[in-house]
Design a protein that fits this description.
With 298 residues, this protein is mainly beta. Helix content is 11%, strand content 39%. The protein is built from four helices and 23 strands. A seven-stranded antiparallel sheet has the order 3-18-23-20-13-16-15, with no helix packed on it. The longest helix has 10 residues, at 237-246.
Length: 298
Amino acid sequence: MNCPTCQAPIPEGARFCPNCGAAAPQPVSVGAYSEPVGESDNPKETMRVGDTSVRVEGELVPVVDIELGPRTGVYFEHHILLWKQPQVRLGFLGLQNAGKRFFAGLQIFISTAQGPGNIAMSREAPGQIVALRIRPGQPPIDVREHQFLVATNGVAYDFYWQTGLANVFFSRSGLFIDRFTATNEEGLLLLHGYGNVFEKQLGPGEQIDVEPGAWLWKDATVRMDTVTVLQSGGGGGLMGALGALVGGASLVMNRFTGPGRLGLQSMTYHEPMAEGAQQAGGQSNIGGVLGSLFNPKQ
């Protein structure tokens, strides 16, 4: 869990942030189970990495406002830029396996910005900003497709193909998962979560089943599998599956197994559908590949 005030990591079980002294969010426990903890607001304090400072402004559709120093650069998805000063130099970061990403509907190039100067970016959707500090030696952070916002250049960006046929065809999380790792210095990674954002700390072997569109990020130590509502113990068997179908819910769920942190979001983007049509969370991996070629909207 990160401090909601200064974004410094808070050790598990701590009641106060060791960096700024703010009260740590406390999970609600039901027996031995601890519920996911909600982010009360966007980060309020200015976050600093090297000679660069980052602020989150606005409420309904938050904006990441960055004051770049001459040494620390950032990279971001090209279509989220809002404004910049003329002296901020833009470039691009090429990614390996560009052909695979193209056919999966992902960006091939990532924009870069080098200061000094001011630059800002935002997604065109209501939500909350998640700010994650990544330090050398820390496990990588996995992020679902199209939810990465911006990162400082001390964070290495990679991606991996989902493993397991069930995950590839039915997880509805995209064909690829983005992975971010600290290099030899601390970095800052910012994500846009749709709706409200929650964080669940999973213990070793602890599991939680999540609607496919609701997971946002996870520690690389957390394993993700795909299960049907029949396999989920609380799915209610065959009647539960029929209830999910009639109620418009997804018939598959993503199962996450600890140890590690899991970020959740309360809202996912869906194309408009006829009333009563079945709603499936996330993005269809099969349809997304073909659909991305004819509908480039993200």
